[in-house]
Amino acid sequence: MHTRVIAETTKTLAFNDACLIELSDLKTDDKDSFNRSMSNQIVTLKCEPMKVSVQTPHFVADQKLINFIQKKMDKLEQFYDHIIYADVFLRLENTSDRQNKVVEILLSVPGNELIVKKQAKSFEEGADSCAQSLERLLVKRKQKIRASA
To answer: Is 100 helix (H, G, I), strand (E, B) or coil?
Structure first.
């Protein structure tokens, strides 16, 4: 579960269906180290982690691989907060080429879906390459939204 300080307030707020905002008090000792201008109360946002669905037709994926992919997808939330879900498809191509592992990731964000497909020697390498491409796309999307606001 992720917790972030988002704003000063004096009352509890609601945020989306998937998130809960709580009001908490800072102790006097913590205020100095946190920020002198901050009030006695802060809002913390607790969101459910992004839902990641890993699909592996014709083979069973190892739990370490699934955990690796989950970690890579969770890291994308640093670049864009409004990710709804991620669908990850892992496939083996029927070729004699060493780069026969295909990773395809569909990332759903409000108003759009981002799709990245990479072919690599291993699923980990492919997932890492897809995550890097998605990072660039999410940063670009965030800059575009900020520029139009």
So the answer is: coil
| pTM check: above 0.90 | no
Mean pLDDT, range 123-138, rounded to an integer: 96
Q: What is the DSSP string of 39-82?
A: -SEEEEEEEPPPEEEEE-TTS---HHHHHHHHHHHHHGGGT-TT
Superfamily per CATH, domain 51-148: Ribosome hibernation promotion factor-like (3.30.160.100)
Contacts of 146 (CB under 8 A, 6+ apart): none
Answer yes or no: are the C-beta atoms of 65 and 123 closer than 8 Å. Answer: yes
